[in-house]
């Protein structure tokens, strides 16, 4: 294609008309152009190295059907932009392996519709603090980097595409911080997206990385990435890798069809994974290594492994948190190994696991709360000495064996239910230990609890039902069983040994030491030891004797009698129904859905949050969930001390006062102010979270405050947010509801509203400003008190007031100024 002409439209020569000029080269046109001028390039091939240093517009032909503009010098940088210029609709070709084809530096240029076809060091390079905007640009560079951003540069890359790269598709380094929106990177031979170096960061939204010969996304050396609604798939190596203090957040992302690890973290890296999906991976879905490395996954799904490796692997002192996640269709769900390694799994589902759902070995630790394990060969296996942790309120359904403890491992298993295991519900051997409290095995194909080799296991208040070989099979001199029961519905086992003489050591499938009962004489389910849902017996909580429980219907009636709050009443009733039905299902030997009882109350002051919290505690007491049901109300001043260590003591004391009842923390967001710095409120939060875990069945915690502030508080404290089951919003009272509150106050104090007073009150409440200090119900009560004062001042002037004078409140008794 021959070289064409360049037309320059000079915009500054005249106020009433523009003049134009034609130039044989783009370089000549640039020399003649000034700021604001427009350079329109005719189709053709231009063998020039261009440098734009003025705020001009350089564009290809207005009609693209006439041909393209090719900028194709023999070597060097084809186009350098150093001004706030606009460049669009050009094809840039470079051949220099030591230089970029397009260089943008120290400017805020706008580049759109560019196609970079090159074999250069990089297709597009942005550096020296430049902040350009690139839209709909395409890079094809099989010899080097697709797009490189470094030297503190940034800018916006919108709907750009790297169709081929011999190295990384997009490389961000040297403290650069670009934003990528709806970009695509594919057919790169390095990482699709590479971030490295302290201060380097990327915000990417709606981007896609695929067909990569290497890792899809690589973050290293203190770089930071934030990816939202992005997809990474079809790589030859790991999908996402983090190394050396890297930090990455993935929200609403998909990582799939990865032959190696979907996500691999090492060397103190931190990953936050929210509402994201990991599927079809050849090795680990999440692979977490090294001390200080951690992953926090919330609302995520890990599924469909194509290899033979655990879906989640935590080792060498790393840690992982899985909250409200699903892991299914995998060989193994979670492996935690090596001393210092830890995994916390909350309210999650592990299902369709071909081997072991949870494996703990070599000194690792897990804590599973409110989790559900289904269709696994082994539900949980604590393999060796030093390995342990806690399983609390978990269910294991249709497993080969529910829980295995071997070789000196010593877990705590509390309030867990194993249903329909093919073999034993709980199996302990080879010097395994373990403490099992309030656990239940139903429908086992073998024994409920099978403890061999003289293992020193402790069982407290456990129960077995419908176990084919027997409820309990113990070796002599082994476990300690306290208050354990069985329905004795299984067939007699003739090979069971006799109970030993010591009453502390129980043996055999016949519950050695526990009286045998036929089905006709067995106690009903309700007579079994108290479970987590039922709580301990009344009066045993610390902090004083239990108050006598009012019937639940009576307390619910008081709740219903409150003015307004219809949505709040529905929420509380739904929660109470869940707890009550769960209790009845457990009594019937059925599985019950886990119901977290901690709540968040949001809304303006005076909307009834404290009153509802008090009634909620009473209802839980009447249902046997709480021992006392009393309310302890605290705020920041009650929890936060003035010096190091005092905050933990204050928080512990407040928690102890609330044992058996409700701890109500008003304005909880004050514990985590936005400018907290070294504020001791964080210590109160950390102490509270630990106490909630350690004593989850003894205290119900309710945090309350303004809606917006509470949302911020929960967002900045995911550890706190994960402990609460639901948020209940208390809406402001309507003028009509405030009138009803005044009417209730009047009736209680033997006053009446005279004719016209109700209408005057409606108008008064409708005119009150609803600012942050508005007191809602408190405003209604203060209004009534003010009316009584003004009534008294008026009636005191009468010589002989009658009954109407003494009881009727008139419109003139309303306060003149709003009271808050």
Automatic annotation (TrEMBL):
Residues 41-173, 314-475 form the Carbohydrate-binding/sugar hydrolysis domain. Pfam families: AAA, AAA_lid_6, Beta_helix. CDD domains: AAA. SUPFAM superfamilies: P-loop containing nucleoside triphosphate hydrolases, Pectin lyase-like. The keyword Repeat applies. Gene3D superfamilies: 1.10.8.60, P-loop containing nucleotide triphosphate hydrolases, Single-stranded right-handed beta-helix, Pectin lyase-like. GO terms for molecular function: ATP binding; ATP hydrolysis activity. Residues 595-734 form the AAA+ ATPase domain. InterPro entries: AAA+_ATPase, AAA_lid_6, ATPase_AAA_core, Beta_helix, Carb-bd_sugar_hydrolysis-dom, CbxX/CfxQ, CbxX/CfxQ_RuBisCO_ESX, P-loop_NTPase. Residues 478-549, 798-820 are annotated as: Disordered. The keyword Nucleotide-binding applies. Residues 810-820 have a biased composition (Basic and acidic residues). SMART domains: AAA, CASH, PbH1. Residues 518-546 have a biased composition (Low complexity). Keywords: ATP-binding, Nucleotide-binding, Repeat. Belongs to the CbxX/CfxQ family. This is Right handed beta helix region. It comes from Streptomyces pini.
